[in-house]
Fold this protein.
Amino acid sequence: MQRDESYLLIQALYQDTELLLPQLLQQCTALELEILYTGKREALGWVSLNLQVSGRWHQLAKLESQLEHQAEALQEGHLFWQRQDQGEGRSAYLPYVMQAQTLVQNTLIEVLVQFFTQKQIKLQELTIERCLQTRTLIPMQQVCMRVYLPLDVNLPELRENFLILCEQYNFDAIFELDRG
């Protein structure tokens, strides 16, 4: 028997002086919601937070009511949430991860995001890091994307087009099933 569950995706961008994550986790626990994913990044005094929870419709409705109050009380920042029904969840997609690295250039992110959005592929997570290559100290840029591929996508064709694109722009890249 399949459980009657819905999903709630929560995103926040706020000053790191706010204690939003512990509050959200406490609220989810109190409402007996299952926490499916938590991602948190900190930079320059700001926190970017992604949280996905699942539970029964009425439990999520209570959390949404609490989120409205928290969004109003948030001094500096933004809090967003969106409901997904079970049919819209991750089960209708294949999770894949893409990593690309190249010399620092402004086109990397734009080219990669445009490639996936033109093919109507959902971007789940985007991480950008800059570093110096260890031997030559040349500035490098690395992008990691988690994407959800529709089940009907022609995977060999998509992978080939992606690698051709990366070769055109001189990106070192991989594109593989997300095992995490």
Residues 8 and 93 are 17 Å apart (CA to CA).
